[in-house]
Design brief:
Mean pLDDT: 82
Distance between the termini: 37 Å
Low-confidence stretches: 6-13, 15-20, 23-42
Oligomer: single chain
Strand content: 25-35%
CATH topology of the largest domain: Mitochondrial Matrix Protein, Chain A
Order of helices and strands: HHHHEEEEEEEEHH
CATH superfamily of the largest domain: Mitochondrial glycoprotein
Pfam families: MAM33
Helix content: 25-40%
Protein name: Mitochondrial glycoprotein
CATH class of the largest domain: Alpha Beta
Number of strands: 8
Shape: globular
């Protein structure tokens, strides 16, 4: 999975999505702490160097700001027919579903891993909008066979695109297998049919919209947890 995700990332137009999520909404310095808060830090200042005390103050202010600016909510556990398995501390999630009696669907989804710049809509508009990108690996298997049809997809804010289609035999993987052409090189009718194949299984534009909202929330959860982890380390 990781190898194919990295392949998808090399296709992307830029790698600055994290700065868009955090750098673009960074606060000015959070208001100075209250007298009561200052007293709670007094004993700490005695045991910590001025440099460490300053780091802790900045970390606390940042955690407070990030928690109050847009408080994260509890991640959704389901979307339509799919169950959602969050992976705290990791950069992806897994979704699982079924289609009919014998098809199992597994979707591995990255957090934001790139972006594209597109013209702003409207005849009088100038400048560009930034569309964040998410990579998906959609595995469709049938019964107990180790054969899978796998789709490498791009999820944009309001649309889903297929990049590659693989046919895999998990128990008979060979070195250097032929993995098929780029999706856009396929016959137009075949492209349309494969899109409809995925759409029938719930892998569609609606899923892209859900994933962008989900990952915005996960991104904030992971940031706050990372800040708290760093703070705990410095406090030791």
């Amino acid at each position: 999975m990781a190898r194919l995700i990295r392949t998808a990332q090399r296709i992307l137009l830029c790698n600055s999505s994290k700065s868009l999520l955090h750098g673009g909404v960074r606060s000015p310095a959070v208001a100075s702490t209250s007298f009561v808060q200052s007293r709670s830090y007094a004993s700490e200042v005695i045991s910590k160097s001025p440099f460490e005390a300053n780091i802790l103050r900045i970390l606390r202010n940042e955690i407070q700001y990030q928690s109050e600016y847009a408080p994260p909510h509890h991640p959704a556990a389901k979307f339509n027919s799919f169950t959602v398995q969050d992976r705290p501390g990791e950069q992806y999630i897994t979704m699982r579903g079924k289609y009919g009696d014998n098809e199992d669907i597994k979707i591995d989804v990255t957090m934001f891993d790139g972006c594209a710049y597109v013209p702003k809509p409207g005849e009088d508009s100038t400048g560009e909008d930034v569309h964040l990108h998410i990579s998906l690996l959609v595995d469709i298997s049938k019964g107990q066979d180790r054969e899978e049809l796998e789709f490498l997809c791009s999820a944009w804010p309001d649309s889903l695109e297929i990049q590659k289609v693989y046919f895999l035999r998990r128990e008979k993987m060979i070195a250097g297998p032929y993995m098929g052409p780029n999706f856009r090189d396929l016959n137009v009718k075949l492209q349309k049919t494969l899109r409809e194949y995925l759409e029938a299984r719930g892998v569609n534009d609606e899923l892209s919209v859900f994933l962008h909202e989900y990952m915005k929330n996960k991104d904030r959860i992971e940031l706050i947890q990372w800040l708290s982890t760093v703070k705990s380390f410095v406090e030791k």
